[in-house]
Amino acid sequence: MANKYKIALIKGDGIGPEIVDEAVKVLDAVASVEDIEFDYSDYLMGGCAVDVFDNPLPQDTINGALASDAILFGAIGGPQYDTLPKEKRPETGLLKMRKELNVFANIRPAVIFDELTAASTLKEEVVKGVNLVVVRELTGGIYFGEPREKLADKAYNTMVYTKEEIKRIAKVAFEQAMKRDKKVTSVDKANVLEVSQLWREVVEEVAKDYPEVSLEHMYVDNAAMQLIRAPKQFDVILTGNIFGDILSDAASMVVGSIGLLPSASVGGKVGLYEPIHGSAPDIAGQGIANPIATIMSASMMLRDLGELNAANRIDNAIKAVLKEGYRTKDLSSFDAKEVVSTSEMGSLVAEYATK
Question: What is the pLDDT, as a whole number, of residue 119?
């Protein structure tokens, strides 16, 4: 009997619908050979939800997401929404969704494909073999801290972390490390921030439960420099919300393109899986967006659902397609045998995933 899963699709804005459609194409392909069934339901979040409901996160979307086994998400936002009040901004909808789902851990792997080492702006000998993951705390820190306010002549935000928030994200990082090379680099700014001093203390306490894992601390400014200087030194990077937001985007360029980085937001009842890039409204509708990060996010979703064979099929298909020289426009300068559209890339990965 087939394993059945309810998947909430939140395509969002800009290139979101294009890239999610290709991930669904690949999911359906592996489902046909792995005896899996997906029941998809579409929901609105972001600018598209504002256009229809005057609300970036309708209650129907929250209810549908919570009733699903997993959520596959594209991207949100666009310049037409930048002047809206804060409560109607697309980003507010996403932050609220993360809170509603209680997905406090954002897992962002950054792996260099051998065929794309030239796509990185760093030297090949620096990036070849990079395989790291950023574990970013997602529902606390300065993005959610109170009080916060923008006044006429000043503005302020508050960075807040509780011991429990730090403890639970640290556990996620150490569990990730146990499956990898058993090294955690905790990134903070403990030399000037009291919240980072607490972060460091709690992380060291959690580390005692994982004696096989080595722990090092690194200030965020040094971590940014080291990520560019010698990225292969990292295995698992554990950090807070704002630092993780910045460092994971830096990691995307280490591996060549932000279009190659997936992510999983987990910790609550339902996981949220999405590429780390934005909605790219400047290229929306042109069929040139790279769907690989979204397809890789779908693979992460399958892995968390326990469908390891299906996830491996997708991962191996992506490697095979890139090895064959197929590239979307963002990677067209790097050993491209053929430059393909968004849809063509999705079809190629789907085809290879069924072999």
Answer: 86
Answer yes or no: are the C-beta atoms of 233 and 180 closer than 8 Å.
no
Is 156 an active-site residue?
Answer: no
The answer to whether 189 is a known catalytic residue is yes
Q: Which CATH architecture has domain 105-258?
A: 3-Layer(aba) Sandwich (3.40)
What pTM, to 2 d.p., does this model score?
0.91
* Identified catalytic residue from 13, 235, 245, 330: 245
Stretch among 97-101, 169-173, 221-225, 247-251 having the lowest mean pLDDT: 247-251
Active-site residue (options: 43, 143, 210, 326): 143
Identify the CATH number of the domain defined by range 1-102+267-355. 3.40.718.10
Range with the lowest mean pLDDT among 271-275, 302-306, 331-335?
331-335
Give catalytic status of residue 335 as yes or no: no
**Helices in 102-238 by DSSP H: which ranges?**
124-127, 163-178, 194-207, 220-229
The rounded distance, in Å, linking the Cα atoms of 298 and 321 is: 17
The answer to whether 249 is a known catalytic residue is yes
- 105-258 matches 1-102+267-355 in CATH topology: yes
Catalytic residue among 54, 60, 221, 282: 221
Q: Among the options 21, 28, 181, 249, which is catalytic?
A: 249
Distance CA 147, CA 281 (A): 33
Domain ranges of the chain: 1-102+267-355, 105-258
